Protein backbone atom coordinates (compact mmCIF):
# COMPACT_ATOMS: atom_id res chain seq x y z
CA UNK A 1 0.00 0.00 0.00
CA UNK A 2 1.04 3.60 -0.47
CA UNK A 3 1.56 6.04 2.39
CA UNK A 4 -1.17 6.02 5.03
CA UNK A 5 -3.64 8.93 4.93
CA UNK A 6 -2.87 11.59 7.55
CA UNK A 7 -4.70 11.39 10.86
CA UNK A 8 -6.99 14.20 12.01
CA UNK A 9 -4.36 15.27 14.56
CA UNK A 10 -1.73 15.49 11.81
CA UNK A 11 -4.08 17.56 9.68
CA UNK A 12 -4.86 19.89 12.59
CA UNK A 13 -1.15 20.13 13.46
CA UNK A 14 -0.51 21.31 9.91
CA UNK A 15 -2.98 24.17 10.22
CA UNK A 16 -1.87 27.60 11.37
CA UNK A 17 -2.69 28.26 15.03
CA UNK A 18 -6.17 29.74 15.35
CA UNK A 19 -6.31 33.23 16.77
CA UNK A 20 -7.29 33.76 20.40
CA UNK A 21 -10.29 35.80 19.25
CA UNK A 22 -11.87 35.87 15.81
CA UNK A 23 -15.10 37.70 15.26
CA UNK A 24 -16.85 38.64 12.07
CA UNK A 25 -19.81 40.87 11.29
CA UNK A 26 -21.02 41.28 14.88
CA UNK A 27 -24.25 43.21 15.00
CA UNK A 28 -26.51 44.07 17.93
CA UNK A 29 -29.54 46.28 18.26
CA UNK A 30 -31.21 47.28 21.53
CA UNK A 31 -34.72 48.24 20.49
CA UNK A 32 -34.23 51.03 17.90
CA UNK A 33 -30.61 51.77 18.77
CA UNK A 34 -27.84 49.96 16.91
CA UNK A 35 -25.13 49.33 19.49
CA UNK A 36 -22.78 47.24 17.35
CA UNK A 37 -22.78 47.31 13.56
CA UNK A 38 -20.65 44.84 11.64
CA UNK A 39 -17.62 44.61 13.94
CA UNK A 40 -14.86 42.24 12.85
CA UNK A 41 -11.37 41.82 14.28
CA UNK A 42 -8.93 39.24 15.57
CA UNK A 43 -6.63 38.94 18.55
CA UNK A 44 -3.65 36.73 17.81
CA UNK A 45 -2.20 34.25 20.27
CA UNK A 46 -0.03 36.06 22.77
CA UNK A 47 -1.06 39.45 21.40
CA UNK A 48 -2.21 42.37 23.54
CA UNK A 49 -4.99 44.27 21.77
CA UNK A 50 -6.56 47.46 23.06
CA UNK A 51 -10.21 48.19 22.42
CA UNK A 52 -10.71 51.94 22.38
CA UNK A 53 -13.56 54.30 21.72
CA UNK A 54 -15.80 56.89 23.33
CA UNK A 55 -18.59 56.05 25.77
CA UNK A 56 -21.39 54.18 24.02
CA UNK A 57 -19.15 53.06 21.15
CA UNK A 58 -20.15 49.44 21.78
CA UNK A 59 -16.94 48.18 23.40
CA UNK A 60 -18.56 46.36 26.34
CA UNK A 61 -21.32 44.99 24.09
CA UNK A 62 -18.66 43.56 21.77
CA UNK A 63 -16.81 41.98 24.72
CA UNK A 64 -20.04 40.47 26.06
CA UNK A 65 -20.87 39.05 22.62
CA UNK A 66 -17.40 37.51 22.40
CA UNK A 67 -17.97 35.75 25.74
CA UNK A 68 -21.50 34.58 24.94
CA UNK A 69 -23.07 36.87 27.55
CA UNK A 70 -25.02 38.83 24.94
CA UNK A 71 -26.62 37.22 21.88
CA UNK A 72 -25.57 38.99 18.67
CA UNK A 73 -28.25 39.65 16.05
CA UNK A 74 -25.69 38.63 13.44
CA UNK A 75 -22.08 37.58 13.25
CA UNK A 76 -19.81 34.80 14.40
CA UNK A 77 -17.23 34.43 17.15
CA UNK A 78 -14.44 31.90 17.66
CA UNK A 79 -12.50 31.81 20.92
CA UNK A 80 -9.23 29.85 20.93
CA UNK A 81 -10.36 27.99 17.83
CA UNK A 82 -13.84 26.97 19.01
CA UNK A 83 -17.22 28.60 18.28
CA UNK A 84 -18.28 30.65 21.30
CA UNK A 85 -21.66 28.90 21.33
CA UNK A 86 -19.84 25.96 22.91
CA UNK A 87 -19.03 26.42 26.60
CA UNK A 88 -15.68 24.66 26.09
CA UNK A 89 -14.51 27.67 24.04
CA UNK A 90 -14.32 29.55 27.36
CA UNK A 91 -12.33 26.82 29.12
CA UNK A 92 -9.08 28.82 28.99
CA UNK A 93 -10.54 32.31 29.03
CA UNK A 94 -10.32 34.73 31.96
CA UNK A 95 -12.64 37.71 32.22
CA UNK A 96 -12.78 40.79 34.41
CA UNK A 97 -16.14 42.49 33.74
CA UNK A 98 -16.60 46.24 33.77
CA UNK A 99 -19.35 45.67 36.34
CA UNK A 100 -17.34 43.51 38.73
CA UNK A 101 -19.21 42.01 41.67
CA UNK A 102 -18.43 38.83 43.54
CA UNK A 103 -20.41 36.88 46.13
CA UNK A 104 -20.13 39.09 49.25
CA UNK A 105 -20.83 36.15 51.59
CA UNK A 106 -17.76 34.25 50.35
CA UNK A 107 -14.14 34.80 51.28
CA UNK A 108 -11.63 35.81 48.60
CA UNK A 109 -10.17 32.26 48.59
CA UNK A 110 -13.67 30.76 48.27
CA UNK A 111 -14.42 32.97 45.25
CA UNK A 112 -11.24 31.70 43.55
CA UNK A 113 -12.12 28.09 44.48
CA UNK A 114 -15.61 28.56 43.02
CA UNK A 115 -14.22 29.80 39.71
CA UNK A 116 -11.63 27.00 39.63
CA UNK A 117 -14.44 24.44 40.00
CA UNK A 118 -16.51 26.15 37.30
CA UNK A 119 -13.46 26.23 35.01
CA UNK A 120 -12.73 22.59 35.93
CA UNK A 121 -9.14 23.29 36.92
CA UNK A 122 -7.36 22.30 40.14
CA UNK A 123 -6.52 25.09 42.58
CA UNK A 124 -4.56 24.39 45.75
CA UNK A 125 -4.60 26.70 48.76
CA UNK A 126 -1.04 27.70 47.91
CA UNK A 127 -2.10 28.56 44.32
CA UNK A 128 -4.97 30.60 45.68
CA UNK A 129 -2.74 32.55 48.08
CA UNK A 130 -0.19 33.13 45.30
CA UNK A 131 -2.87 34.45 42.87
CA UNK A 132 -4.21 36.81 45.52
CA UNK A 133 -0.67 37.92 46.36
CA UNK A 134 0.01 38.75 42.69
CA UNK A 135 -2.95 41.18 42.63
CA UNK A 136 -2.06 42.77 45.95
CA UNK A 137 -4.49 40.86 48.16
CA UNK A 138 -1.88 38.81 50.01
CA UNK A 139 -3.08 37.87 53.48
CA UNK A 140 -6.73 38.68 52.67
CA UNK A 141 -7.66 35.19 51.42
CA UNK A 142 -9.83 34.44 54.48
CA UNK A 143 -11.67 37.79 54.46
CA UNK A 144 -15.26 38.09 53.26
CA UNK A 145 -15.62 39.91 49.92
CA UNK A 146 -18.48 41.95 51.39
CA UNK A 147 -15.90 43.87 53.45
CA UNK A 148 -13.69 44.71 50.46
CA UNK A 149 -13.41 48.19 48.96
CA UNK A 150 -14.24 48.60 45.25
CA UNK A 151 -10.56 48.68 44.37
CA UNK A 152 -9.96 45.46 46.32
CA UNK A 153 -12.92 43.80 44.60
CA UNK A 154 -11.47 44.79 41.24
CA UNK A 155 -8.13 43.29 42.27
CA UNK A 156 -10.01 40.13 43.27
CA UNK A 157 -11.64 40.21 39.83
CA UNK A 158 -8.18 40.22 38.27
CA UNK A 159 -7.21 37.17 40.35
CA UNK A 160 -10.45 35.47 39.25
CA UNK A 161 -9.61 36.24 35.60
CA UNK A 162 -6.24 34.53 36.05
CA UNK A 163 -7.68 31.30 37.51
CA UNK A 164 -6.87 28.20 35.45
CA UNK A 165 -3.88 29.50 33.46
CA UNK A 166 -5.93 31.21 30.75
CA UNK A 167 -4.71 31.56 27.17
CA UNK A 168 -6.93 34.59 26.66
CA UNK A 169 -7.71 37.26 29.24
CA UNK A 170 -10.42 39.85 28.59
CA UNK A 171 -10.14 42.92 30.79
CA UNK A 172 -13.01 45.41 30.60
CA UNK A 173 -11.94 48.67 32.24
CA UNK A 174 -9.63 46.84 34.67
CA UNK A 175 -8.43 49.96 36.49
CA UNK A 176 -11.68 51.90 36.82
CA UNK A 177 -11.74 51.59 40.64
CA UNK A 178 -8.00 51.51 41.26
CA UNK A 179 -5.57 54.05 42.62
CA UNK A 180 -2.41 54.97 40.62
CA UNK A 181 -0.50 52.12 42.28
CA UNK A 182 -3.19 49.65 41.23
CA UNK A 183 -3.04 50.97 37.66
CA UNK A 184 0.69 50.38 37.57
CA UNK A 185 0.13 46.86 38.94
CA UNK A 186 -2.38 46.13 36.17
CA UNK A 187 0.05 47.44 33.56
CA UNK A 188 2.78 45.17 34.91
CA UNK A 189 0.37 42.26 35.00
CA UNK A 190 -0.60 42.73 31.35
CA UNK A 191 3.06 42.89 30.38
CA UNK A 192 3.73 39.67 32.35
CA UNK A 193 0.82 37.98 30.57
CA UNK A 194 2.28 39.05 27.21
CA UNK A 195 5.66 37.63 28.22
CA UNK A 196 3.95 34.31 29.03
CA UNK A 197 2.26 34.28 25.62
CA UNK A 198 -1.22 34.97 26.97
CA UNK A 199 -3.45 36.97 24.63
CA UNK A 200 -5.11 40.00 26.23
CA UNK A 201 -8.05 42.05 25.02
CA UNK A 202 -7.98 45.28 26.97
CA UNK A 203 -10.77 47.83 27.03
CA UNK A 204 -9.61 50.94 28.81
CA UNK A 205 -10.23 54.65 28.76
CA UNK A 206 -6.66 55.20 29.95
CA UNK A 207 -5.14 55.65 26.51
CA UNK A 208 -1.64 56.12 27.90
CA UNK A 209 -1.74 52.66 29.44
CA UNK A 210 -3.08 51.13 26.25
CA UNK A 211 -0.28 52.78 24.30
CA UNK A 212 2.28 51.36 26.71
CA UNK A 213 1.12 47.75 26.76
CA UNK A 214 -0.78 47.02 23.55
CA UNK A 215 0.59 45.56 20.33
CA UNK A 216 -2.48 46.50 18.36
CA UNK A 217 -5.49 48.72 18.80
CA UNK A 218 -9.06 48.46 17.55
CA UNK A 219 -10.94 51.75 17.69
CA UNK A 220 -14.72 51.58 17.83
CA UNK A 221 -17.04 54.48 17.16
CA UNK A 222 -20.83 54.32 17.00
CA UNK A 223 -20.70 50.54 16.96
CA UNK A 224 -18.30 50.27 14.00
CA UNK A 225 -14.57 49.72 13.69
CA UNK A 226 -13.28 53.21 12.93
CA UNK A 227 -9.63 52.10 12.68
CA UNK A 228 -7.41 49.22 13.65
CA UNK A 229 -3.82 48.27 13.36
CA UNK A 230 -0.52 48.05 15.16
CA UNK A 231 0.63 51.09 17.08
CA UNK A 232 3.33 51.58 14.43
CA UNK A 233 0.67 51.61 11.72
CA UNK A 234 -1.60 53.98 13.60
CA UNK A 235 1.09 56.23 15.04
CA UNK A 236 3.72 55.61 12.40
CA UNK A 237 3.80 59.22 11.27
CA UNK A 238 6.90 60.77 12.76
CA UNK A 239 7.21 64.47 12.28
CA UNK A 240 10.12 66.79 12.52
CA UNK A 241 9.49 70.48 13.10
CA UNK A 242 12.19 72.87 11.95
CA UNK A 243 12.76 76.59 12.52
CA UNK A 244 14.85 77.71 9.52
CA UNK A 245 15.95 80.88 7.77
CA UNK A 246 17.63 81.27 4.39
CA UNK A 247 15.56 78.53 2.77
CA UNK A 248 15.69 78.47 -1.02
CA UNK A 249 14.14 76.16 -3.63
CA UNK A 250 16.89 73.54 -3.30
CA UNK A 251 16.47 73.35 0.47
CA UNK A 252 12.68 72.99 0.09
CA UNK A 253 13.21 70.24 -2.48
CA UNK A 254 15.51 68.44 -0.05
CA UNK A 255 12.88 68.61 2.66
CA UNK A 256 10.15 67.39 0.27
CA UNK A 257 12.38 64.44 -0.59
CA UNK A 258 12.37 63.48 3.11
CA UNK A 259 8.57 63.64 3.46
CA UNK A 260 5.40 65.71 3.12
CA UNK A 261 6.20 69.34 3.84
CA UNK A 262 4.10 72.11 5.31
CA UNK A 263 5.29 75.67 5.98
CA UNK A 264 4.18 78.55 8.15
CA UNK A 265 6.63 81.45 7.71
CA UNK A 266 9.98 80.18 9.01
CA UNK A 267 8.44 77.07 10.61
CA UNK A 268 8.59 73.90 8.53
CA UNK A 269 7.05 70.52 9.36
CA UNK A 270 8.22 67.38 7.57
CA UNK A 271 6.04 64.31 8.00
CA UNK A 272 8.39 61.38 7.75
CA UNK A 273 7.31 58.02 6.39
CA UNK A 274 7.10 55.15 8.89
CA UNK A 275 10.12 53.32 7.44
CA UNK A 276 12.72 56.02 8.18
CA UNK A 277 15.88 55.04 10.07
CA UNK A 278 17.62 56.84 12.93
CA UNK A 279 19.89 58.75 10.52
CA UNK A 280 17.13 60.37 8.46
CA UNK A 281 16.79 63.55 10.54
CA UNK A 282 20.58 64.12 11.12
CA UNK A 283 21.22 63.68 7.36
CA UNK A 284 18.44 66.12 6.51
CA UNK A 285 19.80 68.72 8.94
CA UNK A 286 23.37 68.25 7.62
CA UNK A 287 22.20 68.67 4.01
CA UNK A 288 20.24 71.82 4.90
CA UNK A 289 23.33 73.31 6.57
CA UNK A 290 25.38 72.42 3.48
CA UNK A 291 22.78 74.27 1.37
CA UNK A 292 23.38 77.43 3.46
CA UNK A 293 20.22 77.23 5.55
CA UNK A 294 20.42 78.60 9.09
CA UNK A 295 18.97 75.94 11.44
CA UNK A 296 17.53 77.54 14.62
CA UNK A 297 15.60 74.58 16.06
CA UNK A 298 14.85 70.93 15.31
CA UNK A 299 11.99 69.26 17.21
CA UNK A 300 11.33 65.64 16.48
CA UNK A 301 7.70 64.76 17.33
CA UNK A 302 5.46 61.74 17.27
CA UNK A 303 1.73 61.83 17.25
CA UNK A 304 0.28 60.34 20.45
CA UNK A 305 -2.37 57.62 20.48
CA UNK A 306 -4.71 60.09 22.13
CA UNK A 307 -4.25 62.62 19.30
CA UNK A 308 -4.68 59.86 16.73
CA UNK A 309 -7.81 58.55 18.48
CA UNK A 310 -9.34 62.01 18.63
CA UNK A 311 -8.48 62.57 14.97
CA UNK A 312 -10.10 59.29 13.94
CA UNK A 313 -13.20 59.95 15.98
CA UNK A 314 -13.54 63.47 14.55
CA UNK A 315 -13.07 62.15 11.03
CA UNK A 316 -15.67 59.42 11.51
CA UNK A 317 -18.18 61.89 12.99
CA UNK A 318 -17.74 64.07 9.91
CA UNK A 319 -16.21 67.05 11.72
CA UNK A 320 -12.94 66.71 9.94
CA UNK A 321 -9.54 67.34 11.49
CA UNK A 322 -9.20 70.38 13.69
CA UNK B 1 -20.29 19.05 38.43
CA UNK B 2 -21.43 22.62 37.63
CA UNK B 3 -24.93 21.81 38.89
CA UNK B 4 -23.62 20.57 42.25
CA UNK B 5 -21.19 23.50 42.55
CA UNK B 6 -23.99 26.03 42.03
CA UNK B 7 -26.36 24.08 44.31
CA UNK B 8 -23.70 24.12 47.05
CA UNK B 9 -23.18 27.86 46.47
CA UNK B 10 -26.94 28.48 46.83
CA UNK B 11 -27.07 26.53 50.10
CA UNK B 12 -24.00 28.35 51.40
CA UNK B 13 -25.65 31.67 50.52
CA UNK B 14 -28.73 30.68 52.53
CA UNK B 15 -26.56 29.86 55.55
CA UNK B 16 -24.16 32.82 55.28
CA UNK B 17 -26.90 35.36 54.63
CA UNK B 18 -28.57 34.20 57.84
CA UNK B 19 -31.74 33.02 56.05
CA UNK B 20 -31.39 29.77 58.00
CA UNK B 21 -31.11 31.63 61.29
CA UNK B 22 -34.11 33.83 60.52
CA UNK B 23 -36.18 30.75 59.66
CA UNK B 24 -34.92 28.92 62.76
CA UNK B 25 -35.97 31.79 65.04
CA UNK B 26 -39.42 32.04 63.42
CA UNK B 27 -39.88 28.29 63.60
CA UNK B 28 -38.77 28.05 67.22
CA UNK B 29 -41.26 30.80 68.09
CA UNK B 30 -44.01 28.89 66.27
CA UNK B 31 -43.04 25.62 67.96
CA UNK B 32 -42.90 27.23 71.40
CA UNK B 33 -46.27 28.93 71.03
CA UNK B 34 -47.94 25.84 69.58
CA UNK B 35 -46.44 23.59 72.30
CA UNK B 36 -47.83 25.89 74.96
CA UNK B 37 -51.24 26.05 73.25
CA UNK B 38 -51.50 22.30 72.63
CA UNK B 39 -50.53 21.50 76.25
CA UNK B 40 -53.59 23.49 77.40
CA UNK B 41 -55.97 21.42 75.22
CA UNK B 42 -56.21 18.31 77.39
CA UNK B 43 -58.61 18.93 80.24
CA UNK B 44 -59.76 22.19 78.60
CA UNK B 45 -62.95 23.50 80.21
CA UNK B 46 -65.40 24.57 77.48
CA UNK B 47 -69.09 25.43 77.43
CA UNK B 48 -69.69 21.77 76.52
CA UNK B 49 -67.77 20.58 79.57
CA UNK B 50 -64.20 19.28 79.85
CA UNK B 51 -62.60 17.89 76.68
CA UNK B 52 -61.85 14.20 76.92
CA UNK B 53 -58.39 13.12 75.76
CA UNK B 54 -60.00 11.72 72.55
CA UNK B 55 -61.73 15.00 71.79
CA UNK B 56 -58.54 16.86 72.56
CA UNK B 57 -56.68 14.70 70.02
CA UNK B 58 -59.38 15.46 67.45
CA UNK B 59 -59.07 19.19 68.04
CA UNK B 60 -55.27 18.81 68.06
CA UNK B 61 -55.47 17.19 64.62
CA UNK B 62 -57.21 20.32 63.33
CA UNK B 63 -54.94 22.72 65.15
CA UNK B 64 -51.97 20.84 63.75
CA UNK B 65 -53.20 21.69 60.23
CA UNK B 66 -53.50 25.32 61.24
CA UNK B 67 -49.98 25.39 62.68
CA UNK B 68 -48.59 23.50 59.69
CA UNK B 69 -50.15 26.14 57.46
CA UNK B 70 -48.15 28.73 59.37
CA UNK B 71 -45.07 26.62 58.90
CA UNK B 72 -45.73 26.22 55.18
CA UNK B 73 -46.14 29.98 54.97
CA UNK B 74 -42.70 30.46 56.55
CA UNK B 75 -41.21 27.94 54.09
CA UNK B 76 -42.98 29.61 51.15
CA UNK B 77 -41.91 33.12 52.13
CA UNK B 78 -38.35 32.00 52.86
CA UNK B 79 -37.79 30.15 49.59
CA UNK B 80 -39.69 32.65 47.43
CA UNK B 81 -37.65 35.55 48.73
CA UNK B 82 -34.46 33.49 48.39
CA UNK B 83 -35.35 32.44 44.82
CA UNK B 84 -36.56 35.91 43.82
CA UNK B 85 -33.19 37.65 43.66
CA UNK B 86 -31.48 34.62 42.14
CA UNK B 87 -31.53 35.39 38.44
CA UNK B 88 -32.43 39.04 37.93
CA UNK B 89 -30.67 40.12 41.13
CA UNK B 90 -27.40 38.54 40.06
CA UNK B 91 -27.73 39.88 36.52
CA UNK B 92 -28.50 43.40 37.77
CA UNK B 93 -25.62 43.41 40.23
CA UNK B 94 -23.14 41.98 37.70
CA UNK B 95 -22.47 38.89 39.84
CA UNK B 96 -23.71 36.65 37.01
CA UNK B 97 -21.16 37.99 34.49
CA UNK B 98 -18.02 36.27 35.77
CA UNK B 99 -19.91 33.01 36.49
CA UNK B 100 -21.62 32.77 33.09
CA UNK B 101 -18.36 33.61 31.27
CA UNK B 102 -16.98 30.31 32.60
CA UNK B 103 -17.32 27.13 30.51
CA UNK B 104 -20.81 26.45 31.84
CA UNK B 105 -24.24 26.10 30.29
CA UNK B 106 -26.86 28.47 31.62
CA UNK B 107 -29.28 25.57 32.08
CA UNK B 108 -26.71 23.93 34.42
CA UNK B 109 -26.45 27.13 36.47
CA UNK B 110 -30.23 27.39 36.68
CA UNK B 111 -30.60 23.72 37.61
CA UNK B 112 -27.95 24.14 40.32
CA UNK B 113 -29.78 27.11 41.81
CA UNK B 114 -33.11 25.27 41.65
CA UNK B 115 -31.62 22.14 43.21
CA UNK B 116 -30.02 24.14 46.04
CA UNK B 117 -33.33 25.85 46.76
CA UNK B 118 -35.21 22.53 46.60
CA UNK B 119 -32.80 20.93 49.11
CA UNK B 120 -33.05 23.98 51.36
CA UNK B 121 -36.86 24.18 51.25
CA UNK B 122 -37.40 20.43 51.61
CA UNK B 123 -34.92 20.11 54.47
CA UNK B 124 -36.62 22.97 56.27
CA UNK B 125 -40.08 21.43 55.81
CA UNK B 126 -38.84 18.02 57.00
CA UNK B 127 -36.98 19.28 60.09
CA UNK B 128 -39.55 21.89 61.16
CA UNK B 129 -42.49 19.56 60.38
CA UNK B 130 -41.06 16.66 62.39
CA UNK B 131 -40.29 19.02 65.26
CA UNK B 132 -43.90 20.22 65.17
CA UNK B 133 -45.21 16.62 65.21
CA UNK B 134 -42.96 15.87 68.20
CA UNK B 135 -44.31 18.91 70.06
CA UNK B 136 -47.94 17.90 69.40
CA UNK B 137 -47.21 14.30 70.40
CA UNK B 138 -45.62 15.49 73.61
CA UNK B 139 -48.53 17.80 74.41
CA UNK B 140 -51.61 15.71 73.51
CA UNK B 141 -50.27 12.36 72.29
CA UNK B 142 -51.39 12.93 68.68
CA UNK B 143 -49.26 11.70 65.79
CA UNK B 144 -50.47 12.26 62.19
CA UNK B 145 -51.57 9.15 60.26
CA UNK B 146 -49.26 9.66 57.26
CA UNK B 147 -46.54 12.15 58.21
CA UNK B 148 -44.12 11.23 55.38
CA UNK B 149 -46.70 11.80 52.62
CA UNK B 150 -47.88 14.99 54.25
CA UNK B 151 -44.38 16.41 54.54
CA UNK B 152 -43.62 15.33 50.95
CA UNK B 153 -46.67 17.30 49.72
CA UNK B 154 -45.66 20.26 51.86
CA UNK B 155 -42.17 20.11 50.35
CA UNK B 156 -43.85 19.83 46.94
CA UNK B 157 -45.78 23.00 47.65
CA UNK B 158 -42.52 24.77 48.51
CA UNK B 159 -40.90 23.45 45.31
CA UNK B 160 -43.81 24.69 43.18
CA UNK B 161 -43.57 28.14 44.72
CA UNK B 162 -39.79 28.44 44.40
CA UNK B 163 -39.98 27.27 40.76
CA UNK B 164 -42.54 29.99 40.11
CA UNK B 165 -40.33 32.54 41.90
CA UNK B 166 -37.40 31.48 39.66
CA UNK B 167 -39.51 32.01 36.53
CA UNK B 168 -40.68 35.39 37.76
CA UNK B 169 -37.13 36.39 38.69
CA UNK B 170 -36.05 35.87 35.09
CA UNK B 171 -38.84 38.20 33.91
CA UNK B 172 -39.22 40.95 36.49
CA UNK B 173 -37.19 42.70 39.18
CA UNK B 174 -35.89 40.69 42.17
CA UNK B 175 -38.19 42.27 44.75
CA UNK B 176 -41.25 42.14 42.51
CA UNK B 177 -40.71 38.44 41.79
CA UNK B 178 -40.79 37.53 45.51
CA UNK B 179 -43.84 39.70 46.13
CA UNK B 180 -45.75 38.33 43.12
CA UNK B 181 -44.89 34.71 43.99
CA UNK B 182 -46.10 35.07 47.57
CA UNK B 183 -49.15 37.05 46.39
CA UNK B 184 -50.11 34.28 43.96
CA UNK B 185 -49.56 31.70 46.71
CA UNK B 186 -51.97 33.59 48.99
CA UNK B 187 -54.50 34.18 46.20
CA UNK B 188 -54.54 30.47 45.31
CA UNK B 189 -55.10 29.54 48.96
CA UNK B 190 -58.02 31.97 49.18
CA UNK B 191 -59.41 30.60 45.89
CA UNK B 192 -59.13 27.09 47.37
CA UNK B 193 -61.13 28.19 50.45
CA UNK B 194 -63.74 29.81 48.18
CA UNK B 195 -63.94 26.56 46.19
CA UNK B 196 -64.46 24.63 49.46
CA UNK B 197 -67.30 26.96 50.42
CA UNK B 198 -68.82 26.44 46.98
CA UNK B 199 -68.62 22.70 47.51
CA UNK B 200 -70.32 23.00 50.91
CA UNK B 201 -73.09 25.09 49.37
CA UNK B 202 -73.39 22.83 46.32
CA UNK B 203 -72.55 25.71 43.96
CA UNK B 204 -70.59 24.30 41.02
CA UNK B 205 -69.49 27.67 39.65
CA UNK B 206 -67.92 28.70 42.97
CA UNK B 207 -66.43 25.24 43.39
CA UNK B 208 -64.69 25.64 40.03
CA UNK B 209 -62.86 28.74 41.28
CA UNK B 210 -60.91 26.48 43.64
CA UNK B 211 -60.42 23.70 41.09
CA UNK B 212 -59.12 26.01 38.35
CA UNK B 213 -56.76 27.84 40.72
CA UNK B 214 -55.41 24.51 42.01
CA UNK B 215 -54.61 23.49 38.42
CA UNK B 216 -53.03 26.82 37.47
CA UNK B 217 -50.83 26.91 40.57
CA UNK B 218 -50.67 23.58 42.42
CA UNK B 219 -49.62 25.04 45.80
CA UNK B 220 -53.10 24.91 47.33
CA UNK B 221 -53.85 21.45 45.91
CA UNK B 222 -50.65 20.06 47.43
CA UNK B 223 -51.40 21.82 50.70
CA UNK B 224 -54.82 20.11 50.84
CA UNK B 225 -53.13 16.75 50.19
CA UNK B 226 -50.73 17.47 53.05
CA UNK B 227 -53.61 18.42 55.38
CA UNK B 228 -55.37 15.15 54.57
CA UNK B 229 -52.24 13.24 55.57
CA UNK B 230 -51.89 15.18 58.84
CA UNK B 231 -55.50 15.08 60.09
CA UNK B 232 -57.16 12.34 62.15
CA UNK B 233 -59.45 10.28 59.80
CA UNK B 234 -62.15 10.40 62.48
CA UNK B 235 -62.41 14.16 62.09
CA UNK B 236 -64.32 13.89 58.80
CA UNK B 237 -67.16 11.83 60.31
CA UNK B 238 -67.15 14.14 63.34
CA UNK B 239 -67.68 17.28 61.27
CA UNK B 240 -69.76 15.55 58.52
CA UNK B 241 -71.16 18.02 55.92
CA UNK B 242 -69.55 21.13 57.43
CA UNK B 243 -66.16 19.67 56.60
CA UNK B 244 -66.09 20.94 53.01
CA UNK B 245 -66.27 24.59 53.95
CA UNK B 246 -63.67 24.48 56.70
CA UNK B 247 -60.32 25.76 55.42
CA UNK B 248 -58.14 23.54 57.62
CA UNK B 249 -59.84 20.26 56.80
CA UNK B 250 -59.29 18.21 53.66
CA UNK B 251 -61.97 15.76 52.58
CA UNK B 252 -60.09 13.70 50.01
CA UNK B 253 -56.52 12.54 49.51
CA UNK B 254 -54.69 13.79 46.42
CA UNK B 255 -55.19 11.75 43.27
CA UNK B 256 -52.15 10.32 41.49
CA UNK B 257 -53.16 12.33 38.42
CA UNK B 258 -52.98 15.60 40.37
CA UNK B 259 -49.56 14.71 41.81
CA UNK B 260 -48.37 13.94 38.27
CA UNK B 261 -49.80 17.25 37.08
CA UNK B 262 -47.89 19.05 39.85
CA UNK B 263 -44.66 17.33 38.73
CA UNK B 264 -45.39 18.22 35.08
CA UNK B 265 -46.19 21.81 36.12
CA UNK B 266 -42.81 22.14 37.83
CA UNK B 267 -41.05 20.63 34.78
CA UNK B 268 -42.84 22.98 32.36
CA UNK B 269 -42.25 26.12 34.40
CA UNK B 270 -38.60 25.16 34.94
CA UNK B 271 -38.19 24.51 31.19
CA UNK B 272 -39.72 27.89 30.35
CA UNK B 273 -37.37 29.58 32.85
CA UNK B 274 -34.36 27.79 31.30
CA UNK B 275 -35.46 28.92 27.81
CA UNK B 276 -35.83 32.55 28.92
CA UNK B 277 -32.54 32.50 30.84
CA UNK B 278 -30.65 30.99 27.88
CA UNK B 279 -31.84 33.81 25.60
CA UNK B 280 -31.33 36.60 28.08
CA UNK B 281 -28.57 39.18 27.59
CA UNK B 282 -26.60 39.65 30.80
Describe this structure in words.
The complex is a heterodimer of chains A (322) and B (282). Chain A is built from eleven helices and 14 strands. Helices cover 34% and strands 28% of the residues of chain A. Chain A folds into two domains: 12-232, Rossmann fold, CATH 3.40.50; 237-302, ACT-like. Chain A, domain 2 (Alpha-Beta Plaits, 2-Layer Sandwich). Chain A has helices at residues 8-14, 59-66, 108-118, 125-134, 150-161, 180-195, 207-213, 231-235, 249-258, 280-290, 305-316, and strands at 21-30, 33-43, 48-52, 74-79, 82-83, 93-96, 168-172, 199-203, 216-221, 224-230, 238-245, 260-264, 267-272, 294-302. A six-stranded mixed beta sheet of chain A has the order 6-7-8-3-9-10, with helices on both faces. A four-stranded antiparallel beta sheet of chain A has the order 2-1-4-5, covered by helices on one side. With 322 residues, chain A is α/β, with parallel strands linked by helices. By secondary structure, chain B is mainly α. Chain B has one domain (2-279). In chain B, 78% of the residues lie in helices and 1% in strands. Chain B is built from twelve helices and two strands; from the N terminus they run H-H-E-E-H-H-H-H-H-H-H-H-H-H. Chain B has helices at 2-16, 19-39, 53-83, 87-93, 95-100, 106-140, 147-169, 174-201, 204-216, 219-230, 234-239, 256-279; strands at 45-46, 49-50. In chain B, strands 1-2 form a two-stranded antiparallel sheet. Classes of the chains: A alpha/beta (322), B mainly alpha (282). Chain A binds chain B through residues 64, 67-71, 87-91, 93, 95-97, 99-103, 105-106, 114-115, 117-120, 157, 160, and chain B through 1-2, 5, 9, 12-13, 16-17, 93-95, 97-105, 279, 281-282.
